[in-house]
Specification:
mainly alpha; MetI-like fold; single chain
C-alpha cells in the first residue's frame, strides 16, 4: 500500500511491486486535503462511541459482578442473548428508530447505536474480570468507610485499566472501519466518516491509484499510532482475560 501510494498509474502497470522513480510524495498532500474532514468526523464518532461504551459497560459489569439483586442471572443471560442476533437483522429497526429520533445526517445517529451495540461483549469480559478480583480488597475498603462508588473508582477501575483499554481498542477498530451504517445515516458528504469518504473519493472517470492508496495510508495511520501507544496495555488485557477465563 505504501509503495503503490507514491506511484502513477503508468508506474504501477510497469512495476507493481517495485519502487521505480520518481516518487510522488505530493499524492499525500492532495489526499490529506481531500480526506481531512472525513478524518475529523471519524475521530469524533469513534472517540465519543468508545467513551460511551466504556462508561456504561464498566459500571454495568461491576454491578453484575459485585452486587446481588433479583433477576441478576436472568438479566445477564438476556443481555448475552443479543450476541446470537446477526447485526444485519437489526439494520432496519435501528434505522427506523434513528429516523424517528430525527438523527439522520447527525453524528449522534452513528454514536448512539455504536454505544448500544458495543456494550455486550465488553460487559461480559469486564464482568468476568471484576468477579476474579479478591474480595479482601473490597472488604478492607468498606472497613475504612468506602462505599460502592468509592470501591469501584479506587479499586476495580484502576485494576481493570488494561482490560478497559483492550475493549476500547476493539470498539475503536470496529467504529473506525464500519462502512455500511455511516453510509445509511450520514448521506451528507461533509458529515460522513473516513471509510465512506474514501469510497466517494474514487473518481470512476479518472482513477489515480497512487492518490487513492495515499488516502488509505492516511486513514490507517491513526489506528496504527493508537495501537503502537497502547500495545503494552492491550497485551496485558488479553493475558488477564485469558487467565481469568
Amino acid at each position: 500500500m505504501l509503495i503503490t501510494s507514491v506511484k502513477t498509474n503508468l508506474q504501477i502497470t510497469q512495476n507493481y511491486f517495485g519502487l521505480n522513480p520518481p516518487v510522488h510524495w505530493e499524492y499525500y498532500a492532495e489526499a490529506f486535503d481531500k480526506v481531512r474532514h472525513y478524518l475529523i468526523n471519524s475521530v469524533f464518532i469513534s472517540g465519543f462511541s468508545v467513551i460511551g461504551v466504556v462508561l456504561v459497560s464498566c459500571s454495568s459489569a461491576y454491578v453484575f459482578a459485585r452486587y446481588e439483586f433479583f433477576g441478576k442471572k436472568l438479566l445477564f443471560i438476556f443481555i448475552l442473548s443479543f450476541l446470537m442476533i446477526p447485526s444485519v437483522l437489526t439494520l432496519i429497526p435501528q434505522f427506523i428508530m434513528i429516523t424517528r429520533m430525527h438523527l439522520i445526517n447527525s453524528k449522534w445517529g452513528c454514536i448512539l447505536p455504536y454505544i448500544a451495540g458495543g456494550q455486550i461483549v465488553t460487559i461480559y469480559v469486564l464482568r468476568t474480570f471484576f468477579e476474579g478480583l479478591p474480595n479482601e480488597l473490597f472488604e478492607c475498603a468498606r472497613i475504612d468507610g468506602a462505599g460502592g462508588l468509592r470501591c469501584f473508582l479506587s479499586i476495580a477501575l484502576p485494576l481493570s485499566i488494561p482490560m478497559v483499554i483492550s475493549m476500547g481498542l476493539f470498539n475503536i477498530l470496529f467504529t473506525w472501519n464500519d462502512f455500511f451504517w455511516p453510509l445509511l445515516v450520514l448521506p451528507e458528504q461533509e458529515k460522513t466518516t473516513i471509510t465512506v469518504g474514501l469510497y466517494r473519493f474514487m473518481d470512476e472517470q479518472q482513477i489515480k491509484w497512487g492518490l487513492i492508496f495515499a488516502g488509505f495510508m492516511i486513514a490507517s495511520l491513526p489506528i496504527m499510532f493508537l495501537f503502537s501507544l497502547s500495545m503494552r496495555y492491550f497485551v496485558q488485557g488479553m493475558t488477564s482475560g485469558a487467565l481469568k477465563a
